[in-house]
Amino acid sequence: MSLITRVLRLLSFVSILIALLTPAQAQETTAPAEAPVEEAVTTNEDVLVEGLTVRPDVLTEVQAGAFIMRIRNVSPRDGSFDVDMWMWFRWSGSNIRPDQTFEIANGIITFRSDSQVEEDDGMNYATMRVQATVFHDFDVRRFPMDNHVIEIQIEDSNWDETVLVYTADSEATALDPQVNVPGWSVTLDPPIAAPHVYNTTYGLRSGDSEAATYSRLSFPISLERTSYSSLFKSFWVSFLAVVLGLLAFLVKSDDLDARFGMGVGSIFAASANAFILSDTLPQTNFITLAEQINLIAVGTIFLTVFVSIWSLRLRYADRDEASVKLDMWALLVFGVVFVILNLLVLNFDLSGAPPLPSES
Fold first, then answer.
1. pLDDT grade, residue 24 (50/70/90)?
2. N or C: which end of the chain has fewer CB within 10 A?
3. Across-strand partners of 110?
4. 173-177, 275-279, 344-348, 354-358 — which one is most confidently predicted on average?
5. pTM (2 decimals)?
6. Nearest in space to 353 (alpha carbons), one of 289, 304, 276, 302
7. What span, in angstroms and rounded, lies between the C-alpha atoms of 353 and 138?
8. Which is it for strands 107-112 and 174-175: parallel, antiparallel or unpaired?
């Protein structure tokens, strides 16, 4: 191949390469510069106007009532109970919708049915079914002979008492006769409407007051113990353990297996009953009635074991008559003192704790 032919081929290759690179460079050169993106500026006025809730300038009186169908899972330990009820609201005007803005102030609504507003005797009327978990600080000082007044407290989540005030529909508010709470008799007390003050402005700077006041409607429900069945079911093990501990005095003190086996076994039985009852109660800073009864039982059984040791020492000293006499006196005295102490704690509050504000 001649030199001229090689030069021509080289020139052809260079020409093709230039032809391929030229359009890309031209495109880069002629591509228009992108226009700068203008950020959307949101003014303070736009923020205030969008989604603004207009505050009504008229005070509306809302009549509300409830029909309570079920009260379940009453738990002093957890401090709560579940309620299933129908609620209704009656009001005038179109500025508010209390059926949509109410809440349970001392609980959580777990289900709320849809409501429709209809006209009833010249007023707006709406009703809905509500299921909720309500929180309550149970006063367990007298458990298991404790009485309580639990409350369902209704407030409006939007409007304070300058816009909305509740009144109770006392005539229609009722409790289903089939409502049953194991261990207590249940009665519905008259509903109460009253203002409730929150010592905060919730960050609102335009208000004149340093506190917020909302109208609250409460439905109080009384739970009362009507028999001693709960007391018997809670402490029959402890009472039986004390009886067995006292009956050990009828066994000769030198019969070690029978005499001391009954006492030690009784202590374990009473202690186990105390642990079981503690699982049903919340943590407290005072000694409840249940704990007082258990302490009396365990203390009595412990004293029977102590006296058994004393009686055994008398047997070893060949003072059999003194040992029998000690056993009989201990059986009588401990039995009487045990009954007296239980009657004392059942009739008088010896916990030393003040009552809770909600149940005073």
1. very low
2. N
3. none
4. 173-177
5. 0.77
6. 289
7. 13
8. unpaired
